[in-house]
Automatic annotation (TrEMBL):
<dbReference type="InterPro" id="IPR013976">
    <property type="entry name" value="HDOD"/>
</dbReference>
<dbReference type="Pfam" id="PF08668">
    <property type="entry name" value="HDOD"/>
</dbReference>
<feature type="domain" description="HDOD">
    <location>
        <begin position="24"/>
        <end position="216"/>
    </location>
</feature>
<protein>
    <submittedName>
        <fullName>HDOD domain-containing protein</fullName>
    </submittedName>
</protein>
<dbReference type="InterPro" id="IPR052340">
    <property type="entry name" value="RNase_Y/CdgJ"/>
</dbReference>
Amino acid sequence: MNTATTTRPITQAELEEILGAIRIPACPAAVTEVMEEARKEEPQLKVLARIIASDVGMSAMAIKLANSPMFGSASRAKSVQQAVNRLGIRNIINVVIAVALRNTASDLPADVMEKFWTRASTLALATGVLARKHVGIQPETAYTYALFQDSAIPVMMLNFPEYAAMYAGAGDCGNRLVEQERARFHCDHAVVGWLLARNWGLPPKIASAIRYHHDPELYILPEQELPSDALALIAVTLIAEHVIADFMEGAEPEEGRAFDNAKTFLGTSEGDLDEFRDIIAHALN
């Protein structure tokens, strides 16, 4: 979701107000453990496989992701160890983060969350696949960003009882949602998502992309504020959102200036979009 709502720097007072009003979920132990192992000079895949295998949800997702079109292997991974060997360290982190994000929203209505996570996981897969068509965009990083992009929406639901109804009314239209968030809660899910990403130790470029993905001026922000590699994550995800709208009922992809800017930034032509639709259609099937 993208909007035409202007983002401006957050003052320290405003940041403290947000943190005082919203409970940001603590980083789960599994995420911390995996990231600590991944940061070692010689991380051990066997250790990471043990962490994944300790949780049924992580085990199932690891095997599912390893067998997804992001990897395109003819043989199917049938065990956690086979999945871990194929995924590599960055994608193992993706698995743990994805399951941890779902677990933070376990107290919310199952039907609402199932729809939300289906869209998020579909977008993440599509973005990871499309990243392979763009030089300089790591598929694993693109997948993580797309999955985490709107992850603060469940956090907002947990903190504000009236948020779920507002979210349902806004649908997939980010413009309406962000305007209503700021009017009623004096913050928005991009800011809360940025805080969540920082709290969970995600790479700074992913946190920055989350922070600014609703900013209409993001393509002219200074490099030190929004690095070009973070901007690329926003752009490829917006393209992926546009493409998956053809396959998801009720999706409202961003059109107009934001979409045109993303195409220009990535050098995407109408012919490329047709190719991307074919790629994603195959991937989703």
